[in-house]
Amino acid sequence: MDQQKDSLPREAISQETAGEETWSGGEAALDIIELRPVTLSAKAIQHGRHPTNVGRMEHPDAHASRVGWCGEVMEMYLRLDGNRIAEASFWADGCLSTMACGDMLMTLAQGMTPEEATAITPEELIAALDGLPFKSHHCAELSVETLREAIASRLGG
Question: What CATH number has the domain bearing residue 75?
């Protein structure tokens, strides 16, 4: 087992798999489990590692905070100028995909009307990041839901 594990790429070793103890013959499990490294696009990595819209905004016109199903926290802040989102920022406590989704969504929302921003879907956010691994799609859903909640708080609904 250790020899096989040593030959795997470092990214693959860290991926979640069924533990050997859950199988009757631990070595047989290695024949069934295929470990694949999870990759992010260059755009997702850039937005996740170097977000440009991160930070809590003082006196926002709209704000919302949500907790995702795996424990990540997303907060979004909006400042409006007339009927346009003039400033949009977020604060998150989560993985790289959570950060990337929050940052990209704020980039997309700036300059839009609240109605236009509410229409952004998780699929559009994922496409704007040039894709996300399936296991990170909930990060896009959390981001979009948080933005919609912030806008609803402003519009009174």
Answer: 3.90.1010.10
Q: Output the six-digit token pair for 45.
A: 């990595």
Residue 119 structure tokens:
């229409």
Buried b (16+ CB within 10 A) or exposed e, 111-141: ebebeebbebebeebbebbeebbeebbbbbb
Contact predicate 57/79, CB 8 Å: yes
Q: Provide the 3-class DSSP secondary structure of residue 98.
A: helix
**What residue type is assigned to position 87 of the chain?**
E
Mean pLDDT, consecutive 10-residue segments, the chain of 157 residues? 42 38 47 64 97 97 95 98 97 97 99 98 98 96 98 82
11: in domain:
no
In single-letter form, the type of residue at position 104 comes to M
Q: How many domains does the chain have?
A: 1
Question: Which domain range does residue 124 map to?
Answer: 42-154
Model pTM score: 0.76
Is residue 29 situated within a structural domain? no
